[in-house]
Design goal:
Blueprint (H helix, E strand, L loop, with lengths): L4 H14 L5 H8 L19 H16 L3 H9 L29 H17 L5
């Protein structure tokens, strides 16, 4: 059985929280800018294989928590595979605007992919000085 994200994160979360990254959402949001200010951790997280998956996870969580808004708009543009569209392929492109938070759907495989990306993230977090 593989290591869980929580098991990997323990002391790293405490260290990161003390440096102003109080939540995983805040952490991922901060890393969207390659750890601004530049070189803070010396880690270009945006270039990792799992960054796109973590960012999709952030959008899915925000849509689940807040419904309509920027995250839903971004999810429609960049990660529409998380929106269950029963009319996909048959509806006119403009009707995509009708999709909302009630169409959010994450399959078991997608959920596992999120989990794998989180574990990979915590394995890669550089040691703090």
């Amino acid at each position: 059985m593989g290591q869980t994200a929580a098991g990997l994160a323990g002391p790293r979360i405490t260290t990161l929280a003390s440096r102003g990254y109080g939540s995983c959402e805040g952490l991922v949001s901060g890393f969207r800018q390659d750890c601004r200010p530049p070189g803070k951790f010396g880690w270009k997280v945006r270039s990792t294989d799992y960054f796109k998956t973590l960012d999709a996870c952030r959008l899915v969580v925000n849509v689940y928590k807040h419904g309509a808004g920027k995250s839903l708009d971004d999810l429609k543009k960049t990660c529409s595979e998380y929106l269950d569209d029963p009319l996909k392929g048959t509806r006119p492109p403009w009707s995509e605007k009708l999709l909302n938070h009630t169409h959010l759907k994450v399959s078991d495989d997608q959920f596992q992919t999120f989990s794998d990306a989180i574990v990979a993230f915590w394995r890669d977090v550089p040691a703090m000085p």
